[in-house]
Amino acid sequence: MIPAPRLPATVALLLSLVAIARAETPPPTAEARAIAREHYDKAVSHFNANEYGPAAEEFLAVYKAVPQPALLYNAAQAYRLGGDGPKAVESYRAFLKASPEAKQKADVERRIKELEGKSVVAVKDVPDMSPPPAVVATSTKIGASTGGSDRTQAIAEVIKQNRAGFRACFDKWAKAHKGVDGKVTLTFYLDPDGNLDQPNADEKGFAAPEVAACIEELSRTLKYPKSPSGKFTRFTYPFDFKAAR
């Protein structure tokens, strides 16, 4: 019997992580979330500094702490922009396995074909005349390293256009808590394609985890603008809810 081929170590690691993500596991602990946030901040800093290899590794470190398919996608994007086609393909495939119905599926499948095509060309020693990925991502003609004020203004407009929905999160809770005001600060990251990640709603002056969870969930459903500079953007928006008098 011919033994089954062994997967490369990186592929095996990613697929094992995907299996963990798909399994029924308890919610991450506060310690795990803290570790994940530390690695995520490092990943974004590396990415926005065009240090794509370290960024990819940090995204995978976040995934180990708090498994979320989007992190595999982020790692794949970083590997691709850093010119590491094989690792990018491995991460893209792991992402599709973890999230087979992802909205980025068509783009990811196209990227995989492009990267695999480039690998075949490289084997044949045919020069690749396309510009290196970093050239596309390092342009500083538009916006700042985090997307620029134009992008943050556009993100704020998305939030404002959906104020009624966010307000409904508070009003539902307020029915059982008459006369209570509250402030909630929503913070999240957007990747260069406008995909939201790591949303966190923090209540100020009142304890209402239901309101925070509702705001986080609604923020995930909205469509955000792409970054003109090809960078990640950290965005914060304060809500000041006043109870009906």
Classify the fold: give the CATH topology of the largest domain: Serine Threonine Protein Phosphatase 5, Tetratricopeptide repeat
SS-based class: mainly alpha
How much is the radius of gyration in Å?
Answer: 20 Å
**Sheet having the most strands:** 3 strands, antiparallel
Oligomeric composition of the shown chains: single chain
Count of individual helical segments: 10
> Span from first to last CA?
78 Å
The overall strand count is 3
Summarize the structure in short.
By secondary structure, the chain is mostly helical.
What key attributes describe this structure?
single chain; 245 residues; Serine Threonine Protein Phosphatase 5, Tetratricopeptide repeat; TolA/TonB C-terminal domain; 3-stranded antiparallel sheet; 3 strands; 56% helix
Give a structural overview.
This protein has 245 residues and is mainly alpha-helical. It folds into 2 domains: 9-137, Serine Threonine Protein Phosphatase 5, Tetratricopeptide repeat, CATH 1.25.40.10; 148-241, 2-Layer Sandwich (TolA/TonB C-terminal domain), CATH 3.30.2420. It contains 10 helices and 3 strands. Strands 2-1-3 form a 3-stranded antiparallel sheet, covered by helices on one side. α2 (30-48) packs antiparallel against α3 (52-65) and α5 (85-98) packs antiparallel against α6. 34% of the residues are buried. Mean pLDDT is 82; it is low at 1-5, 10-15, 17-23 and 121-147.
